[in-house]
User: Fold these one by one.
Assistant:
Number 1:
Amino acid sequence: MGADPGTAGAPPADHSDEVAALVDQYRRIPPGNQVRLAKPTSNLFRFRAPTTTGLDVGRLNRVLSIDPDTSTAQVQGMATYESVVAAHLPTGHVPLVIPQLKTITLGGAVAGLGIESSSFRSGLPHESVREMEILTGAGEVVVARPDNEHAELFRGFPNSYGTLGYALRLEVEVEPTRPYVRLRHVRFSTAQECAAAVEEICRDREFEGHRVDFLDGTVLSPSEQYLTVGTYVDEAPRTSDYTGSKIYYRSLRDHQTDFLTVHDYLWRWDTDWFWCSRAFGVQHPAIRALWPRRYRRSDVYRRIVAWDRRAGLSDRLARWRGAAGSEPVIQDVEIPVRRLPEFLEFFHRDIGIEPIWLCPVRLRDPRGWSLYPMDPDELYVNVGFWSAVDTKPGDRPGEYNRAVEDAVGALDGHKSLYSDSFYEPEQFWRLYNRPAYERLKQRYDPDGRLPGLYEKCVGKR
């Protein structure tokens, strides 16, 4: 794990050596070759053939130190949240926001988008970062903080997706944790009632007289939606296990109250990739009994999806069902809570994917973040949906994803860029702050060694 996790201070010498080796590797890549990361895992859903030189950052994957006295940790950029949690829990601390999939990296969550059920009180993962050590496109290593000469890079790095540089080390805030989480699953029959409850709970930070530490939701149908209210507790009369035969999202109907260890709560969605494991038959009792527990995890399912995209199996199955083909609709979008019922009405009517994940989020920092310009005064709900829609003859490429993009724009929302996007350049740059991005690109990647944001996130359509 590197340095003693109870010791704070400057990054250890071996980290500095690893950074020096990476810089040397970067500078040896021939000019004119665009650079991308070479790493063993990915949570992006833009499946494209590799055409550029890969930069091996795999060694920068450790928790360097944890300092409970200052409530901070020093973490390398390619450390997965699985390893970050494993290092932190024995100290009784965790980062403020821990995205729900184990192989999301800390650097990836900061350069892209991460979110979880603590986001209504703690914002997005990059908002609890105090300092970033970044290898820029110019091949320089800079330390960006909100109050130094690289402050503009600090505020523009989130949502840059590796087009300005790569996070090598981050200083992040941590908070005390407790052994268990008590869950209450509350059912609502309408989206209006659900949205009103989200607004009230986020405002009061309590529910039925109990403190609320975590809040997310699951929409199973237009008349069945659940908010899951989580509270840290020191003792639990029992704990549930959803890594075996039982499946977490199905428990929402069965248990009004539930208890999980903190570890199992943090990874409650990973075992079945929310509910997406059902596409592989893993939720069928006979198949589940044969599917090894160590392979019930999100990165395994994503590799299967990547294979399916290459093989075109889903398209062939859709045509067998009589459809023209199949369009993956894998997106996370932020919708103002007041407009959530409108979005869900559109989504049920025109897209038809269920279940849907809901996760409230409010920015912590009133200054906002330049490349993902959410309103700091607005309470949003992240709406996540991850499946495919059968297409009809005459549908244009990306028909349903384009409909989602249009609806999000009409409702003053924002869309994460980790998956397929279909924006025209003018529309994209209206949403993602072209002037701020071009200033950063010119300063930190003047020779275009890294791909541009539009090129990387949308590309040629």
Number 2:
Amino acid sequence: MRFRITNNILNSVIVFTMTLFFSCKNDFKEVEALSKSSKFPSGEGKNIRLTYTDSGKVVVILRSPLSLDYSNQSFRYREFPEGIHLEFYDENKNKSEVTSDYAILYDATSLIDLQGNVEIKTHDGGLLKTSQLYWDQNNQWMFTKKKFTFINDDAPLNGIGIEADRNFKKIHIGDVDYSEIPIEDIEQEE
């Protein structure tokens, strides 16, 4: 009797194991598709500091407490969920700074989406504050449709929607709420 129970248990275990074995397929394409469809980063960096140079000169220094690399996705991007701090240097070694609470960099378009307490401090004392700002790296152009405050030479400008080049030499304003800057000096959208 004892032999029979042990034999039945053993047979059950064998049948169960064989069922599991034959039901599992090692299909690489399915595994690869699953990894691309899931939102797991292919890399993670903590307390990063990246220095970008051009011809031996420092152009940008990027700092962030956390960087997540999603280059395993069909539309590759890098995410900075705990914020970002950028230092830009021009040809005269003048430093401008950009900070935000969150950032995402899209590799294919070279567009950076900065969100939450976005601030740009220019080397000549200009300051732009907004809740969201897009930076087009290829065209050196920034824009937002959100409320903003821009201070340059102690003259505040408040409005909704602004576009500008990296040096704030070319500025396009959406709607102006308040300005101490003469309006004729500002190019407004029609």
Number 3:
Amino acid sequence: MIPCYKSVKLVLDKLIALTLLVALSPILLIIACAVYLDHKSVLFTQQRPGLLEEPFYILKFKTMNDGHASDANRVTQFGSWMRRYSLDELPQLWNVLKGEMSLIGPRPYLMEYLNLYSDEHKKRQWVLPGITGWAQVNGGNELSWKEKLDLDTYYVDHLSFWMDLKIAFKTMTLLGGGKRKDLPDSKFMGYKENIR
């Protein structure tokens, strides 16, 4: 990795996030209104681990109704459509602007998972979490947890401008086809169970 790339990446992240927030503001407003009509609230917030396990609150447009049913049964029709094109993730541009996230990096999973990672997989917390990442463009939720975490570790070990550029292009290709799986991750239980 180029020694100064992390600093350059942080500046680029914030410039791109600000540009996208301004350019997409009409679309964000329309989506926010539609989400409000669906849920009577707009944003879903949840504490996630960031750089060096520092907690922050991730922002997403709400896609699920409140309740105790399974996630699959709580996702609304509009929420499913947003998930398909990752539009529910757009509020995370604000997380990027605040320096809590990067445009590209390992996805921030739940705080409770931190103690379940192997020492090798804990490397994923050495960089800012991302809106999209190496695991997401190489199978995403179709991968096992170990496969996803292995890919996150690979990203940290090979972080570079060219790696990020490759992920950005692959992400645009996937979003253009609406290929994101619209259901949330399964729960991570550690490495003893063969969980997907």
